[in-house]
Design goal:
By secondary structure, this protein is of the alpha/beta class. The protein has 16 helices and ten strands. The chain has five domains: 63 residues, DNA Methylphosphotriester Repair Domain (3-Layer(aba) Sandwich), CATH 3.40.10.10; 46 residues; 53 residues; 71 residues, Methylated DNA-protein cysteine methyltransferase domain (Double Stranded RNA Binding Domain, 2-Layer Sandwich); 82 residues, Winged helix-like DNA-binding domain superfamily/Winged helix DNA-binding domain (Arc Repressor Mutant, subunit A, Orthogonal Bundle), CATH 1.10.10.10. The protein has a four-stranded mixed beta sheet with strand order 3-1-2-4. Strands 7-6-5-8 form a four-stranded mixed beta sheet, sandwiched between helices. Strand 1 and strand 2 form a beta hairpin.
């Protein structure tokens, strides 16, 4: 007797299709009800940085302003950050590059926040900054750092440092150290004195008097690059200067610390100096000495990145800016390199032009070329070495 085919699979398939359709309709309804969908439809650039949207059918996530074909509402999911979308398994769109958080609109907004921080009598909190920017505190922190290069707190600290240096350096407008401390925005003298080494490299009173009462030991010698001056405070090496004339190097040090007590090196300093000279000749050995690094928050960020460049390798100014998350800041990066006072130990000589050419070294292009050639010989397998000539 002929048996009829069972009907269960067809019923199951029909039910699955019905469920999938219902799920898609529900997702579409949720998307259409979400106010962010209007930003996606309108490709509003002002919404960039506030969220990203992902498309299930392609596995890609985009900025709201992306010019790609508009996805179906049922295929769209929203995420607050690119990191959340990536954690969910989506890939960044190559067209709009949503993982790069700093956009022109953000740059203008962050510039306004920087002005507010700089002019505020009291440091605005992260929550206050976020409220003014219309972002969550977490998202503002990411966007601010991408646009400015440092966190809001580090930027505020750098602004206080700059105001304090200006006030302490002006004898007529700031005759008392305590006035300068409060005018700069520090909440108390205890706060400033606790952080004074990081902020000024010395106590406020020492800075006020041009480094007076601070002893700096120094010495001048010959190395493979010519005359070299090494100077150190109690905190560490504060200067490694290169040049063609020993007297000019000493004058440079005196200008940096006009009222410091400059003294010749003792036995411990002589050992430090020998290590520095040996390091210049053989940088692969490393320099196991403390550095007394003084600069703005941005400068210190650049200098720290320089110390991560391997011996024998180079990067361009624009590459270094991208590594720092600030692709438009190549000129500022070059300025930070030029402000470096600790030659070789902070290897600004490993930064070259985009075409690999050599330029922009405060201690001479020939000296920079010699350094790079020597390091290339020590590390012949380095992934990228500057092209000379």
């Amino acid at each position: 007797m002929k048996q009829s085919a069972p009907s269960t699979p067809r019923s199951t398939s029909a039910a699955s299709t019905s469920n999938a359709a219902a799920l898609a309709a529900n997702r579409a309804q949720q998307t259409l009800a979400d106010p962010r969908w209007a930003d996606v439809q309108g490709r509003h650039a002002a919404a960039d940085g506030r969220f990203v949207y992902a498309v299930r059918s392609t596995g890609i996530f985009c900025r709201p302003s992306c010019s790609s074909r508009l996805a179906k509402p049922e295929n769209v999911s929203f995420f607050d950050t690119a990191a959340q979308a990536q954690a969910a398994g989506y890939r960044a769109c190559k067209r709009c590059q949503p993982e790069a958080t700093a956009k022109p609109g953000h740059a203008a907004l962050m510039a306004q926040l920087c002005d507010w921080i700089a002019s505020a009598e009291e440091e605005p909190s992260l929550a206050e900054l976020a409220e003014r920017a219309g972002m969550s505190p977490f998202h503002l922190q990411r966007v601010f750092k991408a646009a400015v290069g440092v966190s809001p707190k580090a930027y505020a600290k750098a602004q206080r440092r700059q105001r304090l240096q200006t006030a302490l350096g002006d004898a007529q407008e700031a005759p008392r150290v305590i006035d300068a401390i409060f005018d700069a925005g520090f909440a108390s003298t205890a706060q400033l004195y606790r952080d004074s080494q990081a902020v000024l490299g010395m106590t406020p009173r020492q800075y006020r008097t041009g480094g007076a009462a601070q002893q700096i030991r120094f010495g001048v010698a010959e190395c493979s690059l010519g005359p070299i001056l090494v100077a150190a405070t109690a905190q560490g090496i504060c200067a490694i200067l290169l040049g063609d004339d020993a007297d000019a190097l000493v004058q440079d040090l005196q200008q940096r610390f006009p009222k410091a007590q400059l003294a010749g090196g003792d036995a411990d300093f002589e050992r430090w100096m020998a290590q520095v000279i040996g390091f210049v000749d053989e940088p692969t050995r490393g320099l196991a000495l403390p550095l007394d690094v003084r600069g703005t928050a941005f400068q210190q960020q650049v200098w720290q990145a320089l110390r991560l460049i391997p011996v024998g390798s180079t990067v361009s100014y624009s590459e270094l800016a991208r590594k720092l998350g600030m692709p438009q800041a190549s000129r500022a990066v070059a300025g930070a390199c030029a402000a470096n006072a600790i030659a070789v130990a902070i290897p600004c000589h490993r930064v070259v032009r985009n075409d690999g050419g050599i330029s922009g070294y405060r201690w001479g292009v020939d000296r920079k070329r010699a350094l790079l050639q020597h390091e290339a010989e020590l590390a012949p397998q380095a992934p990228r070495v500057a092209r000379h000539g």
